[in-house]
Predict the structure.
Amino acid sequence: ATLQVQSLNVHGGAMETRTIASWQEATAGWTQVGGAVKMPAGAAKARVQVRVTSLRGTFRLDDFSFVRSSK
């Protein structure tokens, strides 16, 4: 599975996709994942994507947050 953030322009067109984390095997329980993505100039929206090629178990996500940074 791969967790990605995709930046979109004002018309909803994809600009860039960044991978936050990826897993090749099942984990032994809950796994915390975090990251920072700098959105490109002209980005108006963000899309969170989870891409799974094969799944033999349960996949849960929670507590997403987006924070505007002055950096």
